[in-house]
Amino acid sequence: MVTPPLPLILLIDDDPDEYLILSLFFTHDIARLHWASQPIAGIKKAELIRPDIIILDQYIPGFDAIETVKQIKAVKPLRNIPVLISTGTIHPTVKTGLLDAGAINLQEKPIPVGILNNIISLHLCTPGK
Predict the structure, then answer these.
(1) Measured in Å, how far apart are the chain's first and last C-alpha atoms?
(2) How far apart (Å, rounded) are the C-alpha atoms in residues 14 and 18?
């Protein structure tokens, strides 16, 4: 029996502690986790590795999360990859803008492991690539 590949998750977040926290949850037998500290590098990495889901920090200094989601969705091979926004604070108008840009959901940090697992499982069950 062939074992299916582990889900590939790309975290785009300027805080290396967020990567450390997620890497503790996503061990090598649950998922493969990649990290980029800036949106531009994250989009380039996403084009190379084609993740199953992208987790994007809403507040990265010097970058607009809405524009980043739009840029991700403008790249044809990335267009169907779910983008989950992680944030310290959810503002209703920003939430609307992010969802309109193509994000699947916003979740306040720290994202509880159970909620994160449910969101990822839900979206990985849907063909996205």
Answers:
(1) 23
(2) 8
Please tell me what DSSP assigns to residue 76: G
pTM of the entire predicted model: 0.91
Query: Above 90 in pLDDT, residue 47?
Result: yes
Indicate which CATH number applies to the domain containing 102: 3.40.50.2300
pLDDT > 80? residue 127: no
Q: Is 3 a domain residue?
A: no
48 pLDDT exceeds 90? yes
Q: Please check whether residue 78 is in contact with residue 69, taking contact to mean a CB–CB distance below 8 angstroms.
A: no
In a domain? residue 41: yes
Domain hosting residue 35, numbered range:
8-124
